[in-house]
Amino acid sequence: MYKTRWSNKNYMQYRLSIEFCYTFIITGGRKMEEEVVNILRHYRHDLINKLQIVHGYLTMKKYDKLGQTLDELFKELDEERKLLHLGIPQFTLWVVCFNTSYSNFRLSYKIHTNTALPKEMDTYAVSVSQSIMKILEQCCKPFELHEMNLEISEKHSEFLFEFHINGILSDINSLIRNEKDKVRNNFEIINDNGDLIIQFRVSKSK
Q1: What's the chain's Rg over C-alpha atoms?
Q2: Could you tell me if 125 and 161 are in contact, meaning their C-beta atoms sit under 8 angstroms apart?
């Protein structure tokens, strides 16, 4: 039988998510309170869905599937922990709200650093990311759905943010040609055999 590994560490990761949202409640106004409640509602819905899958495999005694699902859940919790420890709360909230804010995209993320980012880059990271999504939304048809992966890594004297977009966007060629948008919004676009990578860099001393 597969033994679960819901340790104190896993529990603390979950609690950090709740405490992060609670911090925004007590420091923001009514609009922020409603936004955080909405975030918690979606977070709880996603968590219950995952636990129902776990319960289903346990009931059917499919312990191999159970183990795989739990491993995936723990990996997600660990990525969430690293996101919360980046030290840029506005950007963290933007990532947490992403899937409810952009109906044509679904975002997952991987954090390849344990270093807290400069607080001064928080608003900047949100601004550039919003600019990227504004352009991407213009290249989507109403019912298209695109999987995206955000990777944040540490490269010597800077941090690298990379958005990987799977699937073909309707107007990708004009997007790539539009150098003015790329220069104005401080990001770089790479067409990697049909998959799109949009990246921006931030100096550690910014």
Answers
A1: 19
A2: yes
Q: Give me the tens of pLDDT residue by residue for the chain, a chain 206 residues long.
A: 544 454 555 544 554 554 555 454 444 555 667 777 777 787 788 888 888 998 999 999 998 998 998 998 889 889 999 999 999 999 998 998 898 889 889 999 999 999 999 888 999 999 999 988 988 888 777 788 889 999 999 988 899 999 998 766 666 656 655 544 554 567 888 877 767 889 998 887 75
Q: What single DSSP character describes residue 1?
A: -
Interaxial angle between packed helices 63-84 and 89-101, expressed in degrees from 0 to 180 and rounded to the nearest 10 = 130
Classify the C-alpha dihedral 108-166-177-203 as positive or negative: positive
Q: Counting Cβ atoms within 10 Å, is residue 91 exposed (0-12), middle (13-18) or buried (19+)?
A: buried
Q: How would you label 14-42 residue by residue, b for 16+ Cβ within 10 Å and e otherwise?
A: eebbeebbeebeeeeeeeeeebbeebeee
Residue 54 near residue 61, CB atoms below 8 Å: no
Q: Which two tokens stand for residue 121?
A: 């880059």
